[in-house]
Structures are given as C-alpha cells and as structure tokens.
Amino acid sequence: MNKFVKDERELTSIMKVIKALENLFELLGTNASDADYISSSAWLDVVGTARDTLKILIH
Fold first, then answer.
1. Which among 20, 27, 48, 54 has most CB atoms closer than 10 A?
2. Phi-psi region at 29: left, alpha or beta (left = phi > 0; alpha = psi -120 to 50)
3. pLDDT tens, 3-19?
4. Is 20 within the bounds of a domain?
5. H or E stretch at 58
6. Which of 56, 27, 59 has its CA nearest to residue 43?
7. 45 within 8 A of 28, measured Cβ to Cβ
8. Is 20 exposed, middle or buried (0-12, 13-18, 19+ CB in 10 A)?
9. Helix (H), strand (E) at residue 6
10. How many CA atoms lie within 13 A of 31 on its CB side?
11. pLDDT tens digits along 18-53
C-alpha cells in the first residue's frame, strides 16, 4: 500500500484504533482529565483495539 501501511489488514486495524479514540472524545470531549479518560469504559476499547493493532503490526 505504502511505506507506512503494509496491507489492508494493517489499515483496517489502525482505523479501528482511530474510531475508538473518536468515540472516547465524543463521549468525554477533548478537555477531560487523564483520569476521566482512563476511568471511562470507552478507554477499554481504545486499549483493546491498540493491543490488537500492535499484534498485527509486529508480525
């Protein structure tokens, strides 16, 4: 695809992380404290999608 994204699988995975972050910001806004973000249930989706993406990117 290009030198940063190897294939469609990587791109899709990265987009899931972006969507999870967008959902978090829609829920709490962009001026919430770190504590508010990480205590939100939406944060679990950010962490989960990022973890899944990392597994894809390193293999």
1. 20
2. left
3. 788 899 999 999 999 99
4. yes
5. helix 41-58
6. 27
7. no
8. buried
9. none
10. 0
11. 999 999 999 999 999 999 999 999 999 999 999 999
Is 3 inside a domain boundary? no
Tokens found for residue 39: 């205590």
pTM to 2 decimal places: 0.90
Domain for residue 2, yes or no?
A: no
Domain count of the chain? 1
First and final C-alpha spacing in the chain: 17
SS3 track for 9-54: HHHHHHHHHHHHHHHHHHHHCCCCCHHHHHHCHHHHHHHHHHHHHH
What's the pLDDT score for residue 1?
Answer: 64
Domain of 26, in residue numbers: 8-58
- Centroid of chain to Cα 53: 8
